[in-house]
Write the structure tokens for this entry.
Amino acid sequence: MNLPNLLTPSRLVGIPILVWLLVARFEGHDLWAAAFFLLFSATDTLDGRIARHFGKVTELGKFLDPLADKLFVLSVLVTLVQESMLPAWVVVVIFGRELLITILRSVSLGQGRVIAASWWGKTKTVTQVAAIGLVIVARPFPALEAYAVFLIALALLVTVYSGLDYLWRFRYVLALPPLRPAIKPLPLSGGAPDP
């Protein structure tokens, strides 16, 4: 296992830390939560750059990286709903998209192909990280709420669009094999069929 593949699971290690910081009630806990959220999110960019720079891009990394992102972001989103900082339907939309794309990736992996993150997929992650970070900071600073709502709306648009983009570009992965005729067709030569 190389360095990029070690950085990827660090986002999973960050989940309990972030959840604790979000539900804690000491002074400045939200700012600590936002800082740790951005720090762990930065490993997503860092592991990809290291892997490409040193030629360490692996099929395992292509699969684990998006999976770690999904679990990390969804865990934080669920906590934000629990803390009444975000409406539940936002998480349902994001989770629905992530579930569809995870199924797509799993089916593709079963066919021997790995679907790497696309540009829209990476943009989705960036907008979600920015929106979530601002939602966290807006709790101690209510003046930022309008900006947080705008970023959440933008993140939802990009999330839905990127999901549709994946489904369209990789629609062949979910395509059913053509049906084979159950009856042997008659010859077109005009002669009688064999008995």
